[in-house]
Design a protein that fits this description.
Blueprint (H helix, E strand, L loop, with lengths): L20 H8 L12 E5 L2 E5 L29 H18 L1 H11 L4 H17 L8 H15 L2 H19 L6 H19 L9 H14 L2 H14 L16 H4 L5 H15 L2
Length: 282
């Protein structure tokens, strides 16, 4: 479960009165999920209840090399300025995103579950830390985007974290299949990443999500290769979500027109903030 930064409580009740013992045993079984490695098992004993937590020794240990990576094709890079500018670009973008935590949280408290700002800041901080300590290489976009996806996976929760990880992995894999990488290929990789978010997330333009900023920005990049133009369209798309009366995806999907009116989608605003920062770097 995610999104516990908002005020409130969550209770899940499952009726097992007509269920078999096998189903109950499966629900009580330990698992190896990172944040749910064991569960509390409550057994009725008259009026007394006893809590039994499975021992970690009951679960088989599995050795996983988290640093092991599959071989990735690294095409030649026809972007002379990439090595000199990529680090500054990414650091400027994540710095701006982190500084927008309060703004994004304000929007998400109204039209979401209140955790967009802190979730984005966690991802931004993780990327910044990994770039500064060398865990995210900035000399080639294939490895840079793949490593950024790893950072997002390890630090961001919720749907936005999953979708942004997916986008950067798709960008990396798209570039790895190129004969060589220039400005056009970079723009097409962004488009492929945005398309992946739409495909697997199920949203499109007009659904009141981050795609309302991402789709026009990516389309502009493919057509003009201009970060400035992409930034302008991302802002127009993000600002436009404040006038949308209905959300067909995301947390806002559960809210009334009166609640949504006048407040932009925080995910779209985050995208706009990032593109503005990228366009501002000389």
């Amino acid at each position: 479960m995610t999104s516990f930064d908002m005020h409130g409580a969550s209770v899940t009740i499952l009726n097992l009165s007509c269920s078999s013992d096998e189903l109950v045993s499966l629900l009580d079984a330990p698992c190896d999920a990172p944040a749910w490695s064991a569960c509390d098992i409550w057994k009725a004993d008259g009026e007394n209840m006893t809590s039994i937590r499975p021992s970690s020794k009951e679960r088989p240990e599995v050795a996983v090399d988290r640093d092991a990576k599959p071989a990735i094709a690294i095409p030649p890079l026809n972007l002379p300025s990439f090595v000199q500018s990529s680090k500054a670009l990414v650091l400027r973008a994540v710095k701006s995103l982190g500084e927008a935590e309060a703004e994004l949280t304000k929007y998400d408290t109204i039209v979401g579950d209140g955790d967009c700002g802190i979730t984005m800041k966690r991802g931004a901080t993780e990327i910044e830390d990994r770039i500064n300590n060398g865990r995210i290489p900035t000399d080639h976009p294939v490895t840079m985007f793949s490593s950024m996806a790893d950072a997002i996976s390890d630090s961001m929760g919720g749907t936005s974290g999953i979708l942004l990880e997916l986008m950067f992995r798709k960008m990396s894999s798209t570039l790895s299949r190129c004969d060589s990488i220039g400005v056009a290929e970079m723009s097409q990789a962004v488009q492929a990443g945005v398309d992946a978010i739409s495909l697997y997330g199920g949203a499109t333009v007009g659904a009141r999500t981050m795609l309302d900023a991402l789709v026009p920005a990516a389309k502009s990049l493919v057509e003009t290769n201009s970060l400035s133009d992409a930034s302008s369209l991302a802002k127009i798309g993000a600002d436009g979500t404040a006038d949308m009366k209905v959300a067909s995806a995301g947390r806002s999907n559960y809210l009334s027109e009166e609640t949504l009116k006048g407040t932009p989608d925080p995910g779209a605003m985050a995208v706009s903030i990032v593109f503005k920062a990228l366009a501002a770097v000389p």
